[in-house]
Specification:
The protein contains 7 helices and 4 strands; from the N terminus they run E-E-H-E-E-H-H-H-H-H-H. The chain is mostly helical and 206 residues long. The strands form 2 sheets. It has a two-stranded antiparallel sheet. The protein has a two-stranded parallel sheet with strand order 3-4. Strand 1 and strand 2 form a beta hairpin. The longest helix has 32 residues.
């Protein structure tokens, strides 16, 4: 039994008791700076003032919208300064060019056989080609195509290889692999269309 926030005693268990302790800890750390209210009809929390829910608006007339506060705090922690040097026009122009090269090469993926070696080579080639495009531009740091595509391509590759290794029959494996590769091809084409839509959306003359 624990002392209740508004009246008498309230039943509790180990989990609720520990949670109450965790809630009290930050309150005790900032006792001189915070005025905390407990509107729950559950356990009393040391240092928190009992307050009925219907009394909150009277006690806190200047209460602000929670979403507004969160967004305000988020924006305070972000700065545009690290990106001020970026020429967005050139940035998107290069991205579109690289995506076009990538799409032309890999938008119609197909394995000739059900060979696991062939599949591994193909999936590796797709990923390494992103690096080749970056190197060709002399880029050593942030590369947009890498960020946009590589994580998804790695995930696709891991899933496809995992299933392919579990199919002993080469003909059935080949059927699965090509169906899976068609999905990857669709993803690559869709990614390219999204880049074109982005270019149009921000209305840059490139």
């Amino acid at each position: 039994k624990e002392e209740e926030n508004f009246r008498g005693k309230v039943s509790t268990n180990l989990v609720f008791f520990q949670n109450k302790t965790f809630i009290y800890k930050p309150r005790s750390d900032f006792k001189s700076k915070l005025e905390v209210y407990n509107t729950s009809d559950g356990a009393k929390i040391e240092g928190a003032i009992p307050l009925r829910v219907d009394e909150v608006s009277e006690k806190l007339p200047d209460i602000r919208d929670k979403k507004e506060i969160i967004l305000e705090e988020l924006f305070k922690n972000f700065s545009q300064e690290p990106y001020e040097h970026i020429d967005v026009k050139t940035f998107l122009k290069n991205l579109e060019e690289d995506m076009n090269i990538f799409v032309n090469r890999y938008s119609n993926l197909k394995a000739k056989t059900g060979s696991l070696e062939e599949l591994m080579r193909l999936l590796s080639d797709i990923q390494f080609f992103v690096y080749e495009l970056a190197i060709a531009r002399g880029i050593r740091g942030e590369y947009v195509l890498y960020i946009l595509l590589l994580s998804s391509l790695r995930q696709f590759s891991a899933e496809i290889l995992s299933v392919a290794y579990s199919i002993p029959d080469e003909e059935k494996r080949s059927s699965f692999v090509n169906e899976a590769l068609s999905i990857v091809s669709d993803f690559i084409k869709e990614a390219y269309h999204e880049v074109l839509k982005l270019k149009k959306k921000i209305k840059l003359p490139i």
